[in-house]
Amino acid sequence: MVQLLELSKRIRADMVSLAHTSDAMHIGSSLSCLDILISLYYKILNIDPNWPEKPDRDRCILSKGHASMAQYIILAEKGFFPKEELLTFNVCGNRLTEHPNYRMIPGIEATSGSLGHGLPIGLGMALASKIRRISYRVFVIISDGECNEGSVWEAAMLAPALKLDNLIVIIDFNRWQATGRSEKIMALQPLEDKWRAFGWNTYSVDGNNIEQLIGTFNTSLSISDKPIAIIAHTIKGKGVSFMEDDNNWHYRIPTAEEVKMAVHELGGGE
After folding, report:
1. What is the DSSP letter of 197?
2. Phi and psi at residue 102, in whole multiples of 5°?
3. DSSP output for 220-237
4. Strands 201-206 and 180-181
5. Residue 118 and residue 97: Cα distance in Å, rounded?
6. Sign of the C-alpha dihedral, residues 195, 201, 205, 211?
7. Which pLDDT tens digit goes with each residue over 200-210?
8. Strands 167-173 and 138-143
9. Rounded CA gap, 209 and 189, in Å?
10. In this structure, are residues 102 and 110 in contact, taking their beta carbons and an 8 Å threshold?
11. Omega into 190 within 30° of 0, i.e. cis?
12. Contact at 8 Å (CB) between 75 and 106?
């Protein structure tokens, strides 16, 4: 667990640096969901970088595709593509686009970024597993702001009807979206009760606590009778004190001085 906590700090520092060098936005959203992705890729997912299209692999869809920095860095760390290629992130004509594109690099299971699409796509994949009798699980990470989309709730109604117990949705509930507090824009609460009422086995967890996340994944996956919804309570900009819970970092790009401050805070020295 200590190794994963150190990895989390290092990747956070790398993300802030990458946001600066690539002129990329959405660092706050990327920091928010990083621990969810680390928990999945290092402890939960059945995946193999040497065979990224293995038929029985688990699928992980980052529906909140604006947080692609976090997924790209983890995929590089896991050996899906060379780490050096991260330097081409958000550079026109290269594979690491600001929102993920299917088949551009190994490990990306769906094109995302247009919110509301990831869960319906994941539902289709989970249903295909049942029809084709190939055993795998589908994990979909969505944002709380994404829960504004009607397509999310259509999928939420359909998945229990189809008994898709191999479908897991994780809601990165950082309480912000692009233009303000999620709760002021749309009446999301009580979010956990809503997913449960739709027929999902529903859990709440500290989404920035890797140990709790892994425990919740292991507990929820041991019960196979309904699709699973995990409400991950997170902090936008988590890990960098001057970014935490500050929605300016939805679009702001860190300056060189801010990168130094963040890297130092995360234990990377001067």
Report:
1. H
2. -60, 135
3. HHT--SS-EEEEEE--TT
4. unpaired
5. 17
6. negative
7. 999 999 999 99
8. parallel
9. 22
10. yes
11. yes
12. yes
